[in-house]
C-alpha cells in the first residue's frame, strides 16, 4: 500500500477532537477529517483553472487533467511540472509548447472548479459537451476479475478508510491482481490523478479498465474516452448523457458495480460472460 505522503504544509487529512453521539450516549474522541485545498493549474506562467482537490499526487493530477481536458495530446508534450506552496493554496506550474498554451487560453477555463464539479469554467456548450474520438481498446474483462477488483479496491482506499470522505479511481489490468489507485475528495480529480499516474508510467490505456467509487457522469466517461480507456465500471448509477456518450464513443459502461452485481449499459462485448442489462 502506498504511503499517504502529503505535499509539505498541506496534509491530506487532519485529526480533530469531536463529540460522537451514539445510542443516546456521547464520547469524546479524535476523528480524521479529509482536507481539500485550492489547486491552481498554470500553463507557461498563465493561470488556467483553480480546482479544490486533496493535496496528494498533484503532479499526477496536473498531467491527467492536461490530457483529459485536451490541453495536450501526449504526456511527452509537458516539459516540466513544478508544485509551489502559497499562503492561499498550491500552484502547479506546467510548461507546455506555446501552441498548446495558446489553445488552452482560448478555452477560457479561468474559473474555480468546485469539488463536485466536472464542467466548471467551460464557457460554451461546445467546450462543455466535447465528444472524443471513438475508443479503439480491445480489452476483454472476465466478470470474475471485475468482482475481484471491486473487493481489492476497498482494501486499497487508505485515505477513505481514515476519513470516509474521498472517492477513488483504480486501474486494473486483466490477468493481474495489482491495482493502481488514486484518491481525492472530487471524483473527477481522482480519475485525473489516476490517468496522470498511468501516463507517467507510459501505460497502454487500451490494455486495462477503470473502476470508480462514484456515479458515472458525462465528464467521467469523457475523460476515459479521451485517453482511450475502453471500459469503466462505477459503483453508482450512470447519467443519461454519460450513457449516450459511452455509446457514441464505443466505451463499455457499467453501473451499480457492487460485490458480484453490475449493470452493463453500453458495448457489453468487452465484459466476458455477461449479458446486456445484467
Strand content: 25-35%
Distance between the termini: 33 Å
Q: Which homologous superfamily in CATH is the superfamily of the largest domain?
A: Cytidine Deaminase, domain 2
Spatial extent as radius of gyration:
19 Å
From the 3D structure, determine the CATH topology of the largest domain: Cytidine Deaminase, domain 2
Tell me, briefly, the overall form: globular
Characterise this structure.
This protein has 278 residues and is an alpha/beta fold. It has two domains: 37-128, Ubiquitin-like (UB roll), CATH 3.10.20.10; 141-272, Cytidine Deaminase, domain 2. Helices cover 28% and strands 31% of the residues. The chain is built from eight helices and 15 strands. It has helices at residues 58-68, 98-107, 125-128, 143-156, 158-163, 187-200, 218-227, 240-249, and strands at 13-22, 25-34, 37-43, 46-53, 80-85, 90-95, 112-113, 141-142, 167-172, 179-184, 209-212, 231-234, 252-258, 261-266, 271-272. The strands form four sheets. A six-stranded mixed β-sheet has the order 10-9-11-12-13-14. Strands 5-6-3-4-7 form a five-stranded mixed β-sheet. A hairpin with a 2-residue loop joins strand 13 and strand 14 (261-266). The model is unreliable at 1-7 (pLDDT under 50).
Task: Give structural attributes.
278 residues, alpha/beta, Ubiquitin-like (UB roll), Cytidine Deaminase, domain 2, 2 domains, five-stranded mixed beta sheet, 8 helices, 15 strands, disordered N terminus
Write the topology of this structure.
Blueprint: E1 13-22, E2 25-34, E3 37-43, E4 46-53, H1 58-68, E5 80-85, E6 90-95, H2 98-107, E7 112-113, H3 125-128, E8 141-142, H4 143-156, H5 158-163, E9 167-172, E10 179-184, H6 187-200, E11 209-212, H7 218-227, E12 231-234, H8 240-249, E13 252-258, E14 261-266, E15 271-272
Helix pairs in contact: 1-6, 6-7, 7-8
